[in-house]
Amino acid sequence: MDLFSKSRSRRFEQLAKPLFKPLYQAALRMTRNREWAEDITQETLIRAYERFDQFEEGTNFRAWLFTILTRVYINDYERGKRRPLTTSFDSGVEGSTWDFPAPPQSDPAVLLTENLLDEKLQKALDSLPEEYRTVVLLVDVEELSYQETADALNIPVGTVRSRVSRGRALLRQMLTGTEPTARKQS
């Protein structure tokens, strides 16, 4: 039984397919684990497909998907466990294929074309406390607005701004080896 008409399913596929790679890369940066990233990316796409009737045409589909991804990640992270997913996208649309991007390669040419983060920056991001890492990834790496990030995380915009600022300061400190000047006391 189809959840949607074929035209609606095709519309979802048309909007979602170009975002597979960015979703997966964001999930990989959040989880730092390839299998977990694949799981939450798949879960995100399943939830988005099931709720596609709630998406308002003309609004930012990318931000909507990243909101779902972020919430899936947070829920999974808080649960502390992952469960296998069994739903297939192929059942909805004839001739459709839903392939996840290949895992990052070690070949330098591939790394450049994949737009992966510099190793030193990735290590610094990985060492950020979770509350700062998530907002920095969504705002600076995935280029969501402060409002979109606030909506995705279900927190006030001011909290997003504060966490981005603090996260950037921590990153700057880690990458340059300097103390943040605003925090020094006399």
Automatic annotation (TrEMBL):
Concerning its family, UniProt says: Belongs to the sigma-70 factor family. ECF subfamily.
Gene3D superfamilies, alphabetically? 1.10.1740.10, Winged helix-like DNA-binding domain superfamily/Winged helix DNA-binding domain
Keyword annotations for this protein? DNA-binding, Sigma factor, Transcription, Transcription regulation
Recorded hits in NCBIfam families, A to Z, give: sigma70-ECF
Start and end of every RNA polymerase sigma-70 region domain? 22-82
Could you tell me which PANTHER family the record lists for this protein? ECF RNA POLYMERASE SIGMA FACTOR SIGR (PTHR43133:SF59), RNA POLYMERASE ECF-TYPE SIGMA FACTO (PTHR43133)
Molecular-function annotations in GO: DNA binding; sigma factor activity
Q: Where is the RNA polymerase sigma factor 70 region 4 type domain?
A: 119-171
**Pfam families referenced in this protein's UniProt entry, alphabetically:** Sigma70_r2, Sigma70_r4_2
Q: Name the Gene Ontology biological process terms.
A: DNA-templated transcription initiation; response to stress
Its protein name is RNA polymerase sigma factor
Task: Cite the InterPro entries for this sequence.
Answer: RNA_pol_sigma-70-like, RNA_pol_sigma-70_dom, RNA_pol_sigma70_ECF_CS, RNA_pol_sigma70_r2, RNA_pol_sigma70_r4_t2, RNA_pol_sigma_r2, RNA_pol_sigma_r3/r4-like, WH-like_DNA-bd_sf
